[in-house]
Amino acid sequence: MKILVTGGAGFIGSAVCRYLVQEKKYRVVNVDCLTYASNLSSLEKIAGDKSYSFYQINICDGPAISSVLRCEQPDAIMHLAAESHVDRSITGPAAFVETNIRGTYELLEAARNYWSALPASRNERFRFLHVSTDEVFGSLGDDGRFTPDTRYNPSSPYSASKAASDHLAMAWHRTYGLPVVLSNCSNNYGPYHFPEKLIPLMITNALLGRDLPIYGSGAQVRDWLYVEDHARALTNICEDGKPGESYLVGGRNERTNLDVVDMIVRILDRLRPRDDGLSYQEQVCFVEDRPGHDYRYAIDPTKLESQLGWRAAETFETGIEKTVAWYLANEAWWMPLRLRRYTGERLGLAAAAPAGGVPERVSA
User: Fold this and answer.
1) What radius of gyration do the chain's Cα atoms show?
2) Which residue, among 27, 22, 29, 25, has the nearest Cα to 6 in the 3D structure?
3) Of the CATH numbers 3.40.30.10, 3.40.50.720, 3.30.70.1560, 3.90.180.10, which one belongs to the domain with range 2-186+225-251+297-313?
4) 143-170: pLDDT as tens digits
5) Is 317 tagged catalytic?
6) Active site (annotated) includes residue 135
7) Which one of 26, 52, 114, 158 is the catalytic residue?
8) Could you say which of 135, 166, 228, 314 is catalytic?
9) Helix 316-329 crosses helix 198-207 at what angle (to 10 degrees)?
10) In terms of pTM, does the model score above 0.90?
11) What is the pLDDT of residues 52-99, one digit of tens each?
């Protein structure tokens, strides 16, 4: 089987590519435009494999995508390419509209034209897996979980752009018959995670001797999913998911942000004690909360578990232990990112919008 993966040099995408090549023995075509969060070094283990190929292409370039589809003739598309950081979407939403909405449109159109020209046997087997987030559903209270029937209610420019792309994908299924399958996942973590997100930021900040900033009180709750479990789930959905259906992927691992940081601190205190003998807890501080910060996300993955037989292999305890150990052993991967691409500065504090009003008339 040959699968085209968009965003395959990103965090989740690279995990998917590694799994497909190393475990499934599939052929993989990776399409990525290499933004700041992409990293080809995350793919070193498969870069020389004859089953793997890479194209540096932006998904907004429809003709280029169409050319790759015609050349490579994939049996499925797994669409993971996206701008994904909520904080960046608050200060710079335009990139999220461009990539997540327009890029998805261009990819859907290229896929539709390619799929419609396939021979009947391949046409029936083809799948377009659109990978999305639980953030499209908005915020939960203390109770309940997201299900495939939960109403969309996005809060940030990021989640709104992903909600729009979800609707586009399902519209291309209902209108044109494109065999689209949709997935929505909870917060991912694990190796090769760009250090702007909570868990890798806390680990790398701790090791660099910097503050461990927690938004607000740290009471926000997330359902954590180990990235390699997610890669297995996406493969299951791509292989066996029913067109027109959506599947929610979650690890059943709800933790507050404060609990997550406390666990990281305890593991680091044990595996890499500070030179001064104090705990990394000394570096924890509380900062102004993110605008529009959702209180709680939690996913009910029953449909995926019961219909496709997937189960998360990692608990949060086992997964976070593996994650911290990986960052301790792979400073050569993350240190250049912290020095050259992201130094740890605070993102996501909304700037004032340009002044509105009626423009002054200028005489010719």
Assistant:
1) 21
2) 29
3) 3.40.50.720
4) 999 999 999 999 999 999 999 999 999 9
5) no
6) yes
7) 158
8) 135
9) 50
10) yes
11) 999 999 999 999 999 999 999 999 999 999 999 999 999 999 999 999
